[in-house]
Amino acid sequence: MRVGLITPRPDHPLLAATSALLTAAGHEVLVQDPFSEDAETEADVYLLKARTPHALALARALERRGARVVNSAGATALLQDRTTMAGLARSAGLPFAPTRTFASLADFAAGPPPAGPVVVKSRHSRKDDLVARVDTPRDLRELAARYPHEPVVVQEFVPNDGWDEKLWAVGRHVFSAHRRSELALDELDELDDFGTPPAPRDRTGLVHRVGEVFGLQVYGVDVIGTEDGTPLIVDINAFPGIRGQAGAPEALAALTLEPGTATLPTCRS
Predict the structure, then answer these.
(1) Is 110 in a helix, a strand, or coil?
(2) Is the pTM higher than 0.85?
């Protein structure tokens, strides 16, 4: 099988490890420049790691020619707009954080001050986008002065246990980790005082439901660990890095080969 990687970074740890597994099993792995207007080589399946407009246009062109793309261009593009993401998630009954949209951060700052802390994010998800906690009117004015024209979404800050649940899916396999939340620093003693993370909770059903709603195969779900343990989704990402998760490369290699008949080492998840 020929596998195309749509990415400017084929050396990314997840992709590099997956490529090594596929190559060892006798498959050919090709790197496709995401800035190219057309595929340089024909592959049986493409992994869409890049999420830029050029990469999405290329993926759509490949799909029109009958190629299998993981994730699809449509699903990937949908998650680039946090307003659309939140609307679809909530309409499907997913526990997604209530989300308001503003044409610009200046527009939000010009309105009534928020009653409590809020989280402000760029409406359009991209590398190094805006994600910031705002506690006071002064914080909001200062942020708006730096990003006056940035379209944003606003979510109320929910008191939590100071940990973010990072959940990743590769097909039916789910991986997870806890990370200190930078947005909850006021509730923490020190950022480098890692403490003991909460006991892992089984979020498999929730993660799979996200995949069904959004038509995703490789994706990440960011969940706040609320004080009563109720999950609250605050973001969803297409084809995240999934660094340091044992079994993730095996799961991605196996997913890439579906519905092929080639075999790979058993995935650990």
Answers:
(1) helix
(2) yes
pLDDT tens sequence across 156-176 = 998 877 788 999 999 999 999
Please count the residues of the chain: 269
Peptide bond into 160 cis (omega under 30): no
One DSSP character per residue, 178-243 reads EEE-GGGGGGSS-TT----PPPP---HHHHHHHHHHHT-SEEEEEEEEETTS-EEEEEEEES---T
> What residues have CB less than 8 Å from 104, skipping those under 6 apart?
148, 149, 150, 151, 152
d(CA 137, CA 115): 10
| Exposure of 184 in the CB half-sphere (CA atoms within 13 A) | 18
Task: State how far the Cα of 3 lies from the Cα of 256, in Å rounded to an integer.
Answer: 8
Task: Provide the 10 A C-beta neighbour count for residue 123.
Answer: 23
